[in-house]
């Protein structure tokens, strides 16, 4: 009977050891994937969803959307901001007009949809560095904190520009 208990205990220890090594392998793979992503971003080759008004051409280069109505809508956002000086003024200028939205994922993946221009979307356009012609990766970082009771909270924070 004692041998059986020792064998069971040894089997459980081996199972725990295998589980831990499996977890370590998963972390190693995740680190390698993130490293490859950072390396592609450093070379400027990381492809990510473009904001409305830009598309990838056949060669993979980022170009303005060939749809003239989309180009006009983006130009009008910046013109309204230059004239009014606030995002709310831009929203007011677009009352009764539609604004393009490029859908990501799902049934509408990659298709252009039209809708109302909201304050949040105006801020998204005005704060997006792509419209200034710059390639940016890593503007946001994920932060995790653990409460004393063990609950994990995850949040996204904007990194300072010097990082």
UniProtKB/TrEMBL annotation:
Limits of the Recombinase domain: 51-163
Superkingdom in the source lineage: Bacteria
GO MF annotation list: DNA binding; DNA strand exchange activity
Protein name listed in UniProt: Recombinase
Organism of provenance: Candidatus Protofrankia californiensis
């Amino acid at each position: 009977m004692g041998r059986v208990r020792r064998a069971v205990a040894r089997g459980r220890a081996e199972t725990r050891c295998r589980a831990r090594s499996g977890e370590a392998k998963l972390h190693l793979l995740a680190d390698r994937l993130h490293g490859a992503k950072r390396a592609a971003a450093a070379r400027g080759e990381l492809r990510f969803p473009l904001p409305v008004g830009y598309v990838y051409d056949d060669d993979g280069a980022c170009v303005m959307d060939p749809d003239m109505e989309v180009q006009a809508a983006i130009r009008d956002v910046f013109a309204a901001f230059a004239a009014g000086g606030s995002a709310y003024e831009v929203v007011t200028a677009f009352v009764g007009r539609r604004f393009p939205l490029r859908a990501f994922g799902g049934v509408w993946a990659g298709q252009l949809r039209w809708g109302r221009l909201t304050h949040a979307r105006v801020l998204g356009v005005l704060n997006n560095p792509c419209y200034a012609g710059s390639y940016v990766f890593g503007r946001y970082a994920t932060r995790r904190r653990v409460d004393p009771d063990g609950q994990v909270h995850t949040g996204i924070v904007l990194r300072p520009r010097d990082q």
